[in-house]
Amino acid sequence: MRAGSRAPVRGRCRRQSAVGQASVAWAGLLVRRSLTLSGHRPRVAHRCARTSASSVRVEQYPDRHESLILRSISIVTAADVRALTNEEVVALPVDRLALLVLDDALRVDTWNWRNWALGFAQDRPREGFTDAQNAIAEAWGWLAAKGLVSTKGNSYDFHDFHVTRAGHEALARGVAYVRAVIRLDVELVEPLEQKVRPQFLLADFELAAFAAMREVEIAVRERSGLGGDLVGVALMQQAFRDGGPLHDPEVHSAESVAQMNLFAGAMGLFKNPPSHRRVDYQDPVEASEVILLADLLLRILRRLGAE
Hints:
By secondary structure, the protein is mainly α. It folds into 3 domains: 7-74, no CATH class; 79-173, Arc Repressor Mutant, subunit A, CATH 1.10.10; 185-306. The chain is built from 13 helices and 4 strands. It has helices at residues 7-33, 62-77, 86-91, 94-107, 113-121, 129-145, 165-173, 175-183, 190-201, 205-224, 232-240, 253-276, 284-306; strands at 46-52, 55-60, 149-151, 161-163. It has a two-stranded antiparallel sheet. A two-stranded antiparallel ribbon has the order 3-4. Strand 1 (46-52) and strand 2 form a beta hairpin. Helix 10 (205-224) packs parallel to helix 13 and helix 11 (232-240) runs antiparallel to helix 12 (253-276). The radius of gyration is 28 Å and the shape is elongated.
């Protein structure tokens, strides 16, 4: 055997290992972005088994990662909870599973949670069924906790339920909307609570985010006493600059500059663009984060006023 004859094989093995690891990373990214749980820790896509002193045999498993990816996609796109296996039921995040359960309960016109659970249990395989039952129970509990289902007002059986107005809205708008609403389920400062939250709940995300930042601009102008000729970024810079009406001389200069940049950046990025063009918040969670940022800025202003 010539010296170095095994090097190309080792190199090939390393390259295949890198490809396998990339496949694992891609599958994991897909699962995370789809907000599903795979339920598996995939093994490396290949392994090197030495068969003799002079050769290396490479065994490949080309279908493992493909099946993981396809399985993850099937869970994400599932529209019928009854079509899921017990393992897939357990793998789904509770909020996504809950909406599938709620949709199924409406489709089969079930008004009693216990009856629905008994119907769901029919003809399901026994393997993993207890875990699937527990996951379904968690989903029902989540629906009740989030106000998407409620007991019937004219019934004394706590198993009887009806889908609330919020539940119908959640089914119409999807899990991303539900998560965004939950993210905003905090006490907002008064102008945002009265003017912005209702707009957000109507799914007018662009106007809700814009209105939230406009409230920040109004509050800065009122507290600084600056005129109406200054708007947006320019207003923030003049209000918080060194010697400006909202500048705190006792704060370290770096913190003062950072505070000015925080307010100015929020105006430039989230308030100014909707003033000139349409900004489509396809992700309601992003719009909710803008509103929460506005809430934080308004709280900072209140603290500055109190000091």
